[in-house]
Each structure stands twice: as structure tokens, then as C-alpha cells.
Write a structure and sequence with these properties.
Elements (H helix, E strand, L loop, with lengths): L2 H4 L12 H13 L5 E5 L6 H13 L14 H7 L6 E5 L3 H13 L10 E6 L6 H12 L5 E7 L7 H4 L3 E4 L5 H15 L5 H10 L4 H13 L5 H7 L5 H12 L3 H14 L3 H21 L3 H21 L7 H11 L31 H15 L8 H14 L3 H8 L2 E5 L3 E6 L2 H6 L2 H15 L4 E6 L22 H11 L2
Parallel strand pairs: 1-4, 1-5, 2-3, 3-4, 7-8
Antiparallel strand pairs: 6-7
The structure holds zinc ion.
Zinc ion (ZN) binds next to helix 4.
């Protein structure tokens, strides 16, 4: 049995954090003043389901304490703890069965409880219900029988219809503080006979983002391998060099792009867990931001906030990244180059080829809207006529291709690309550096080919090459550095912003 299950709180008093929830329910249970429907919101591992089960037992307990707590020893409590009390109905709305169970609920709820005093419905991840299921639930919530109680739990309250929310009493479960998690981890480590360094538990707490489930999972995993030390936690989290976080954050704050990229390269070489690394970087940036606010250095706090924004987004993208480190690299580039004016759409001059048949009206300001109109015109013609693929045609199709690409990193590189050649078998795209050529690997090229095929109705090979690309305006303050040949990829990337791309 996992630590999380083994050490689930059995009484309100044992719930970690959430004092407002504990107090309210202790009062309501001891005085007998419970509502018939509650909504528990909060991120995972904050105690929503555990609390719901305690309340279910407290309501039905044969010997409840004067403080409203369940005894956990009577036969009703024991059956509930073993998961075999038929009057405690737990529904997982995320499962297919959950939908059927809601349908059943409407009929079965009218029957009186079979063993206990009350029927308690605990509906987990309630935001996953379908519209029909919500309607069925709403009917029930409008007139619940006196013998029924509802506890709805969700991590995403904004997805629940207002009509449902207004029928419930809502409790927001807060993320647990690092201190609360650390203390609880220490208690459990002691019970389990796991040797630990206090700082190591603090490190786990920081990584678990306020959720006890992840924190206990990490303790369990590390504890199985022996003592839990700062070193073992760092290694497990992919932070073989905690110094890497310091270096990286420093580089971001002072716009040292080459250093930031070198750090990322090093992490990749070491096989570090980039998702964990990013989390630690965010925690560090948050510290910096709060520090700057405390010192009343608001411009610096604002800059740090902008960096946090970039890396929060990178964190999302890391989960599905085609190239594992690309989101971090893109975020680093965005942050370090934030003061460089990069035009949204680089001016692209077609080489020599001209579309033979299709006439493309180029709007002078080339807004995306006008582009889209041109593309519609073009794509309308592409299927019937054997229209030759040409640079202007591909250019005109580009915004539509861009709109089809979900991967923000591929999108960004493509936005800066120049169409060097286009014919019926291939499209050659030029990007500003070898660094970017390397970023568009086979998977990214296949993605591009697929999207171009959708727009142009033709399967074309995508080639990526290095090309000289001029931008309209160069940033004045960075043009002073001597032009030297880049020594490393990181140097090359930094040069991008000096040369423009
Ligand atoms: Zn009991």
C-alpha cells in the first residue's frame, strides 16, 4: 500500500493544512448542521477526497465523538474504511462508468439507505461529467432527499456549470505550504524508519508544488533506496548540479544567452530531468521576484515576472516537446532577447521564381487577415488546376500553415524562416543559423510537410538550410560587439540577435 493511502488522515484533526475546512466541519458535525451538497475545489493531493470520506463516516458513525469526529471503530466506520459500505457511493466522473452511475443515481437516490443513516455520494473530478450527466445531477441537487448528502470534488472548478455551483457550499482546498509538507514527511519517515536529512525533505516539499500525494510518492521512492539525503533527492530530480539552477537563473536575469544555452546543453548531456529542472528554476525565480518586491525594486520584480511567464509556458511545452530541450531554449532566447526588436514577420524577398498561373495579390501591409484571404483564393484553385508550387504560393500559404501548427517552438522557427525555393516536389526553407537548422529535426520537418500538404494539397519534401536573413531593424544597443566567428552553438545563437535573423 502506498504511503499516500497508508497515511490518509482518518479524522478531521489529522488533515494536514486546510484549517478552515477542518474547523467548519468539526462545528457543523458536532451541532448537526450540515448542508446537503458541498463542492471541494483544489489541486491534486490537497486532501479533498480524504476529507469527503471522513465526513461520510462522521455522518454515519454509530459512536461519533463530541467533537463530531468518526470513531473509525464501529462496524459502519470499519466497512466504510474497507470500501464496502454500500451507502457510501464514490463515483469517478472521469471514467465511463461514472456517467452511467450518475444516470443510475437519479433513480436509486430515492431509496432509503440500506445500512447506514445516510447515503453519501462522493463525486470525484466532477468537472468531467457530460452535459446530460450535469443535468441529471442538477435535478437531484435541486431537491435532495433528506437521507442523501453530496460531496463533489474537482481540480477544475471553472468547468462546472454555475447552476451546479450555486446549489453547493464551496470549500477551496489550498496548496499545502512547504513547512506543512516537510513536517508531515518527517513524521512519516520516522514511522517508516527512514533515515533522512531535514533539508532533503524540504527539497521534496518544494518540488511537490503543494500536493501531498506527489511529496509522499517521492519520499516512498527515495526511502526504498536507503537514506533520504539532499544528494539522493537532487539526483532523483535530475538536479545533479544544483549549481546549474543558480547559473541558469543568473544568466536569465542578466540576459546572458550563451551561458543559459550552455547550461541547458550541459543538463541534456547529463541526462537531467528537464521538467524538474524547470520547476526548480521557477521556484528560484519566484524567490528572486519576492525579494525584489520586498526591496521595492519594482522594475526588477517586473522583469523577473516576465521571465517566470516565459518559463511557466515552457513548462507546459516540455511535457510534449518534440525536441526535449527546445522549449527551454526558446524561453531562454525570448527572455535574453526581450530587449531586441524582432519584427513579428521578417520581410521576405522572393528570389526569382514567379507563379506562372495563379495570381497572388499581395497586400502592401501583409496583415494576416489579408494573407488568409489570398490563401483561401489560392487553395480554392489548387485542387482542380495543376497549379505549380512556387515561392509566392508557399508564402501565401504560410499563415494558414502556421495556424495549423500547435507546437509553439516549431511555429516560432517557421515564422522566422525564408522560403528559398519551392517546386512540385519540395520546399526549401532558410533559417538564420546552424543552431536553428539543428532545431528542425526529422520529426519537426515531417510535421511541417504534413501541414503544408493539408494547405497545398501536395506532398512536398521539406528541406531546412542555413541562410542569410536580414531583419528590417536591428537593435542599436547591441551592434557594438566585434563580429567574430562563432565558436560554439551557444555563441552562434547569441550572434543571431546581433546579426538579425
Ligand atoms: Zn464509527
Amino acid at each position: 500500500m502506498s504511503f499516500y493511502r497508508k497515511y490518509r488522515p482518518q479524522k478531521l484533526a489529522e488533515i494536514v493544512g486546510q484549517a478552515h475546512v477542518r474547523q467548519t466541519f468539526a462545528n457543523a458535525l458536532s451541532r448537526g448542521g450540515l448542508s446537503h451538497a458541498y463542492l471541494f475545489t483544489g489541486s491534486r493531493g490537497t486532501g479533498k477526497t480524504s476529507t469527503a470520506r471522513i465526513i461520510a463516516r462522521a455522518l454515519n458513525c454509530l459512536n461519533p465523538g463530541a467533537d463530531g469526529e468518526p470513531c473509525n471503530e464501529c462496524e459502519v466506520c470499519r466497512d466504510a474504511l474497507l470500501g464496502r459500505l454500500v451507502d457510501l457511493i464514490e463515483i469517478d466522473a472521469a471514467s465511463n462508468r461514472g456517467i452511467d452511475e450518475i444516470r443510475d443515481l437519479k433513480e436509486k437516490i430515492q431509496f432509503t439507505p440500506s445500512r447506514a443513516k445516510f447515503k453519501i455520494y462522493v463525486i470525484d473530478e466532477v468537472h468531467m461529467l457530460t452535459k446530460d450527466a450535469f443535468n441529471a445531477l442538477l435535478k437531484t441537487l435541486e431537491e435532495p432527499p433528506a437521507h442523501a448528502y453530496f460531496i463533489l470534488a474537482t481540480t477544475e472548478p471553472h468547468k462546472i456549470p454555475e447552476t451546479i455551483i450555486s446549489r453547493t457550499q464551496r470549500f477551496d482546498f489550498h496548496r499545502l505550504t512547504e513547512a506543512e509538507i516537510t513536517e508531515h514527511l518527517a513524521t512519516i519517515a520516522q514511522k517508516e524508519g527512514i533515515a533522512f536529512e531535514s533539508a532533503a525533505l524540504g527539497l521534496i516539499a518544494r518540488q511537490s508544488a503543494g500536493g501531498m500525494r506527489d511529496a509522499l510518492g517521492m519520499l516512498e521512492q527515495l526511502g526504498a533506496g536507503g537514506a533520504v539525503s539532499v544528494e539522493s533527492v537532487s539526483q532523483n530530480l535530475g538536479l545533479s548540479r544544483p549549481q546549474a539552477v543558480e547559473d541558469f537563473v543568473f544568466a536569465l536575469l542578466f540576459s546572458k544567452l550563451a551561458e543559459a544555452l550552455t547550461t541547458i546543453d550541459g543538463l541534456v548531456a547529463e541526462g537531467a530531468n528537464l521538467i524538474q529542472f524547470n520547476k526548480t528554476v521557477l521556484a528560484k525565480l519566484r524567490e528572486v521576484m519576492l525579494q525584489k518586491v520586498a526591496e521595492n525594486k519594482l522594475p526588477e520584480a517586473k522583469k523577473t515576472l516576465a521571465i517566470i511567464d516565459e518559463f511557466t509556458r515552457a513548462g507546459e511545452e516540455l511535457k510534449n516537446a518534440v525536441i526535449p530541450q527546445l522549449p527551454l531554449e526558446v524561453a531562454a532566447i525570448s527572455v535574453c532577447a526581450a530587449h531586441v526588436a524582432i519584427p513579428a514577420a521578417p520581410k521576405i524577398e522572393p528570389k526569382t521564381e514567379v507563379a506562372p498561373k495563379v495570381e497572388i495579390k499581395k497586400a502592401p501591409d501583409q496583415t494576416e487577415k489579408k494573407f488568409a484571404a489570398v490563401v483561401t483564393e489560392v487553395t480554392a484553385q489548387k485542387i482542380n488546376a495543376g497549379t505549380a508550387i512556387s515561392i509566392p504560393l508557399v508564402e501565401a500559404a504560410l499563415p494558414q500553415v502556421l495556424s495549423k501548427i500547435q507546437n509553439p517552438t516549431v511555429k516560432m522557427v517557421l515564422k522566422g524562416a525564408k522560403i528559398l525555393a519551392a517546386n512540385d516536389s519540395m520546399i526549401e526553407l532558410g533559417v538564420g543559423s546552424d543552431f536553428l537548422v539543428g532545431k528542425l529535426d526529422a520529426a519537426a520537418r515531417n510535421l511541417l510537410a504534413e501541414k503544408f500538404a493539408e494547405v497545398l494539397g501536395r506532398n512536398l519534401q521539406i528541406k531546412i538550410v542555413r541562410a542569410e536573413i536580414q531583419i528590417a531593424s536591428a537593435a542599436p544597443e547591441i551592434s557594438e560587439k566585434p563580429q567574430t566567428k562563432p565558436r560554439t552553438i551557444a555563441d552562434a545563437a547569441e550572434n543571431l540577435f546581433e546579426e538579425g535573423w
